[in-house]
Amino acid sequence: MKTDLHTHSTASDGTLKPAELVTLADSCGVKLLALTDHDTVDGLPEAKSEAVKHGITFVPGIEVSTLWNERSIHVVGLGIRYEDGKLARVFADVAEKRVNRGKDIGKRLGELGFPDAYEGALRFAAKKGTLSRAHFARWMKMNGYVKTVQEAFDVYLGDGCPAFIKTVWPSLEEGISIILNAGGIPVLAHPGRYKLPEETPLSQLMKEFHEAGGLGIEVCSGSQGSETEAKLADIARQYGFYASLGSDFHTIGGGRPRPGEIHPLPADLDPVWKHLPALAGIL
To answer: What domains, with CATH codes, occur in the chain?
Structure first.
């Protein structure tokens, strides 16, 4: 069964509307799909409704921005409760932080010779509270300031770059608690993508993630090199983590796989979907 448990829509920094994303996933043969937009559940009702039309089993999700040892770490929450509005209220503060960060990034880019960046980036965002660095990167590419979105991150927007603005997200422990309190399973997103210094290696992140209540890790991801999958599979075995996989799809032609077009999990790992209460008796 083709599965993708990490995707994005226009509700955060993707370029397809939730329904369009589901339609694309269906065309790719995906049968089990999660929408995991950054710090918002706004796209879930539309995606769920469209998934029913296509006969896709839908998993409501979110990707929570957290801070660990002064670094941004993302935690995917799978199988979350969102209909009661509690999660939306929790992330209202995060939305305000995104607005303020966006204004600061725009100011910094202006100082670097790229005027009106904030207003330009907003045209790519569904609303101010979802504004992200990806929207700035797309604006820079559209205006010819960079050749690719990745170049915008590598030269201007990435951690430590001239237009990078540090933001105080919830701590890793807080992010995990938010997901657990919403009935979800906390999964460490794309662990192989973090460029961690020697003093805080990946092993330390895994240890603290586990101690804080983290339950799963993405072993196979479209935004980390396939060469890391064997290492992450070993870590999943070591800690007894549930194993997840996802394309981290944002846009067609964005350099990452389309929905579902990722390596399958090693057969001996414990798939996270087997532990989602809503899927009991279905899969």
So the answer is: 3-91+170-279 (3.20.20.140), 93-157 (1.10.150.650)
